[in-house]
Write a structure and sequence with these properties.
4-stranded antiparallel beta sheet, 7 helices, 2 domains, 306 residues, alpha+beta, Double-stranded beta-helix
């Protein structure tokens, strides 16, 4: 295995961030095409296909750039090169040694990496979501062949403990469908400081806590914590602290929240299964299956993504 260069970097800005990398002589950094904002004299650009021609085509058919560019410092002095994403957001740095040498990223989320880091576009999580085992669970729970509505990866960045909860960190319901199934796969150990997923069993439609902010199509809004505690009590809330590799399945039309990390980041993969009617009327997918990919799938998997 090729050892990756050890590089120094700084992140500047708030919502529109810039990553500046400092390269010693002979060091390099690999980046997605079109992300470089500036570079100093002495840095040489080398464009090629990560993993050869076949990997280049794999990147192309999944919507990524065909080429990966390496920026190599040919100068005897330290030189700098900077990168930025084409849209607002936070740049998050990962030390792969802390993740057993690999990390699974959402499509379009890769910005750059030290030279020697291998970059692949295969998605084991997407493959898992379409496996017979998970589809059998989803189809049995929903009582029909289900549609895979949403597949994503979430990174919850730690905030001060006295921060106000925002968005999905507050109690809410998913209003895509009255009856749906959501999967959460912890990619790191999640304790009380890492924003564990929380759920109120029985709060799904027709459950004993259905009256708390009753479910209705396309309804939005966040529910005060005191309302949930008043009806369900502290014993009625299930908090899922668990080791990496733990899989949580639940109907998120019920009351839930998560991601309020105060010390350790929470990293998870998620997917949502719903009815065909819900997908057509109330949902929008964040992926597209190519004809070649559909042809290689089983009938339930092909139905789930078609």
């Amino acid at each position: 295995m090729t050892m990756a260069d050890v590089i120094d970097y700084q992140i500047f800005g708030d919502d529109l961030q810039l990553l500046e990398v400092e390269l010693d002589q002979g060091e390099g950094v690999r980046a997605e095409a079109g992300t470089m904002t500036y570079m100093e004299d002495g840095i040489e650009m080398q464009t090629g296909m990560q993993g050869g021609l076949f990997s280049g085509f794999k990147r192309m058919v999944t919507g990524e750039s065909f080429f990966i560019t390496t920026f190599l410092n040919k100068d005897q002095r330290k030189r700098h090169v900077a990168f930025a994403a084409p849209y607002p957001g936070k740049i998050v740095a990962f030390d792969l040694d802390q993740f057993n040498g690999q990390v699974l990223c959402q499509k379009d989320s890769f910005l750059c990496a030290a030279r020697g880091t291998e970059i692949d576009v295969t998605s084991p999580w997407f493959t898992c979501c379409l496996s017979d085992r998970l589809l059998d669970v989803a189809n049995t729970y929903l009582g029909m062949w289900s549609k895979l509505e949403y597949v994503d990866l979430w990174y919850s960045q730690p905030v001060p403990a006295d921060s106000e909860r925002v968005q999905s960190q507050r109690w809410h319901r998913d209003f895509d469908d009255r009856h749906l199934l959501k999967a959460f796969l912890y990619l790191v150990d999640v304790d009380e400081t890492a924003g564990p997923f929380e759920y109120v069993p029985g709060s799904q439609p027709h459950g004993r806590y259905d009256s708390i902010w009753h479910w209705s199509p396309l309804r939005t809004g966040r529910i005060p914590d005191e309302d949930v505690r008043r009806h369900a009590g502290s014993d009625g809330v299930k908090t899922f602290t668990a080791p990496r590799g733990s899989l949580i399945l639940c109907n998120t039309s019920g009351l839930h929240r998560g991601g309020f990390s105060t010390a350790n980041p929470r990293i998870l993969a998620t997917a949502t299964y719903c009815s065909p009617a819900s997908l057509r009327a109330l949902s929008r997918r964040n992926f597209v299956a190519t004809p070649d990919a559909l042809a290689a799938m089983s009938a339930p998997a092909r139905y789930a993504v078609d």
